[in-house]
Amino acid sequence: MSYVPTLKKLYIEQVSPELVKSRGYKNKHQVPKLLKISLNSGIDADADKNQIADVARDLGAIAGQKPVLHRTKRAIANFKLKPNQITGCSVTLRGNNMWEFLYRLLAVALPTIRDFRGVPSKLDGQGNYSLGITDFTIFPEITVENVKKTMGLDVTIVTSAETDDEARELLKALGMPFRRIEQQSNAPKATAA
Predict the structure, then answer these.
(1) Contact, 6 vs 52, CB < 8 A?
(2) pLDDT of amino acid 187
């Protein structure tokens, strides 16, 4: 018997039947699912080889696989870029690695953010969700003592949903802590005289 990640088991046993019931899908293949998760991080143009290695090592520790380094194609003087200079790194997660990363993001990393009130509920119009994380040390794989410079991280969750509402319902059922929108009262405000 092969290993099934916890979040994938939740999706198969609870989330998928719940979506079929609420959306009235006729076929099990209509149910939206996660396709991949992309992690991206930029690297300063003036970074030395040690900093680049540190960023790549940290992103690899977070993702559980080796990141791909991205290089510039041509020189751009306004941005102080030279040809063939490393400016970023990325990882694409699929399968069990994707489910494990999402579980760690939702259950461990996001709750450790100070004054966390939820993530924005805005999707891209095609059923994909992007989240920017300003400090990657929220992940337990990173030891804060070894970090010389903090980096940001972009997380993009790609789903097979056709609309934003389907994707939002899928992510909410998986445990994505979307920010609550407070209802603003229509009562007139008192003005100081």
Answers:
(1) no
(2) 53
Q: How many CB atoms lie under 10 A from the CB of residue 191?
A: 5
- The CATH class given to the 6-174 domain equals alpha beta
Segments of the chain with pLDDT less than 50: 183-185, 193
Q: Is 87 exposed, middle or buried (0-12, 13-18, 19+ CB in 10 A)?
A: middle
What SS3 class is residue 66?
coil
DSSP letters spanning 42-85: E--TT--HHHHHHHHHHHHHHHSSPPEEEE-SS-BGGGTB-TT-
| Pair of tokens at residue 83 | 């040809």
Q: Hey, is 148 helix, strand or coil?
A: coil
pLDDT per position as a tens digit, 146-189? 777 778 899 999 999 999 999 999 999 999 999 887 544 455 55
Indicate the residue type of 34.
L
Pair of tokens at residue 97: 């690695």
